[in-house]
Design a protein that fits this description.
alpha+beta; 423 residues; five-stranded mixed sheet; Heat Shock Protein 90; 10% strand; 7 strands
Amino acid sequence: MPVPGMKEWLGKQRLDASTRPVLWLRWMAIALAGTVAVLTSASSWPLLLAAGYNAMVDLWQRFSPRLRSPALWLVPDLLVFGRFAYETGDPLGPGYLLFVASAAWAVVADSSLQGWLIGLGLGLGYDVAILLAIRAFPDAASLGGWLALTLGLSLVGALSAAFGRLLRAEQQRVLQQGKVAEELRALEQLKSDFLSTVSHEFRTPLTAIKVSVGLLADKLGGSDGEQQRLMSTILRNVDRLNQMVGGVLEMARLQSGKVILQKRSVDVCQVVREIAVSLQPLMDEKDQLFTLRLPERPVFLMADANRLEQILSNLLSNAQRYTPRGGEIAVEVRELGNWVRIYVSDTGPGIPYNELPHIFDRFFRGQVGRKAGPGTGLGLSIARSLARLHGGDVGVSTKPGEGCVFFVTLPKGEAAGEIPGGG
């Protein structure tokens, strides 16, 4: 097994978000202090001492996360950076930059007071180092400047502590949101798996019931009307259960990403005509006028023909269910550049404005839907999911009491840009 190189080994070590900016600040301060020292022809060995010390702190804290307490490193900082300040002997010299950077250790302090005390302690240490270097005490005229330097460091400490608390709070918030998002994803996956499993398991007994009832109806033959009515009721409700189970299973597969489109070049107009033929008997039962407004020439797009038929069937079945006897239903196909838009309009009761934001939600059935009879509340949701899987979408416009218009917008190719707006 090969031994990893030093670079790879060091690359695996990471500082936490609270410590990293402090060390970067100190490295920048050392670079700036070095520039000042070169320009002023000051001694360079204190700078080398400070750089070596900071490198040791950097490595130590990478491999020993427990050694990040500001109190632990306060005394070494005072000694090393104080020596640097002593060697320079200038209150506004490069040593002050290192003390400012060292005061940023207060970013890991627990409170602003603790950060202020850290900065104040460093400031007093800096004062002592400079006074020893110049071997004099400040007179009354310069005492204000010395006090300003000390308070400046204490202010840096307090601000660093406040910044550190905000940083830790933000880290905690992000971590908490990440945990919540992960838990929600796990719950959503669990729900999808449950719905998929239950729906699949329901289909077998429902199929057995339907077959058995059908055989029983054949054996009864010309029995009395009451028995035939009961058999018809059973078969009709089994079909409804099969439809509901199929909708739940389809939605679970869409949510889990298990639906894979088999795209090919499809003539939208031909698909619309085939659906119209299959649904015409249902509309004839309610004396509904069904109109097709299709272009004279074929309109092709890359789509899964079965899924496209499912989208349009859901929308047309929805229109047929809610349109009253003698009403009108129309389908229109238009080309919009690189897009194709299919309109399904009806003269039903329309959708109340307060329900519009929810009509594509799973299992949602508004006031009008509940009055229209039984249903799963999944048809529109499945239609929109399938349209978005194709790179398009489903929208709606309505006027309560005057019907509504659903429109499916699909790209002709794989990438058609932004979906056209409007309805």
